[in-house]
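agent> fetching stored inputs for the nicotinamide-adenine-dinucleotide docking request
agent> found them:
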Amino acid sequence: MSGRSEELSGRVALITGAASGIGRAAALRFAEAGAMVMCADIDSEGVKLTAELVAAEGGKAASLQLDVSDEVAVEKSLQQTIDSLGGFDILFNNAGVGAADFDLTLDVNLKGVFYGLQYGGQFLAKRGGGAIVSTASIAGLVGLVTPMELGEGAFAQPGGVAYIASKHAVVGMTKQFAIAYAPYGVRVNAVAPGYIETPMTEMIRDDSVIQAEFESLHPMGRLGRADEVANAAVFLASDRASFITGVTLPVDGGYTAR
Ligand SMILES: NC(=O)c1ccc[n+]([C@@H]2O[C@H](COP(=O)([O-])OP(=O)(O)OC[C@H]3O[C@@H](n4cnc5c(N)ncnc54)[C@H](O)[C@@H]3O)[C@@H](O)[C@H]2O)c1
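agent> prediction call returned; pasting tokens
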């Protein structure tokens, strides 16, 4: 594998939402950094493929079908990770849905992350420490403006509001659990991506006028790539971030700097 940095050598990382987009890029990047990765997603075929992609690059991975909105299943997934890969040191709480149904969005994006923080944090604390990174969003830091073509106030519809609320909740839970787990050696942080080129933003990229509007919302003048978010997650999960906890790191080309 090219560019192995070994900053996560010997660690085991459980990554949710690993069948696609940011989660798949993270599985590859965490493995490149030396971690063994448990790829978890509600899409069982997609995560199998991610695990195969990791193995093809010389990394070690396993896959698990997991619905993060199922509290019991999330709790079980931690021991399943240990059973498969012999350890558990890092949780990347990344699974999420776009601005869909109100309740579904809260079930996956808010409760799903909550279960990961609660059970994952307790589990890591008992094991003597570790790191959790969750995927928030610029929608967890600011309200979103709506390009004209999408219709005025699209983000003020129920699905959009649930998305904004769920991602603000991720930022808040990150702070609270960071405080709770700090005495136990568990660091808790989040990444806040701007608009990233993944299947979630396909709609935006289908139309060049809309894409250009979204690009112009980022001072860097482009959308982000999944591996750019994955790099930030690896950093926050690694010992290089050893005194960083409770933060949400924007990975947004300056979107929230304006
Ligand atoms: N793409 C962006 O522009 C963007 C921006 C900010 C934040 N995010 C966040 O990044 C994360 C990853 O999104 P992405 O862009 O890679 O999207 P994606 O749609 O490519 O991937 C999301 C993955 O989550 C999985 N998933 C959905 N519901 C699940 C559930 N209940 N249990 C387990 N897995 C489930 C999907 O099957 C999919 O594989 C999400 O939390 C999303 O809100 C994305």
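agent> quick read of the result: Residues 12-199+226-249 form a domain with the Rossmann fold fold (CATH 3.40.50.720).
agent> awaiting further instructions
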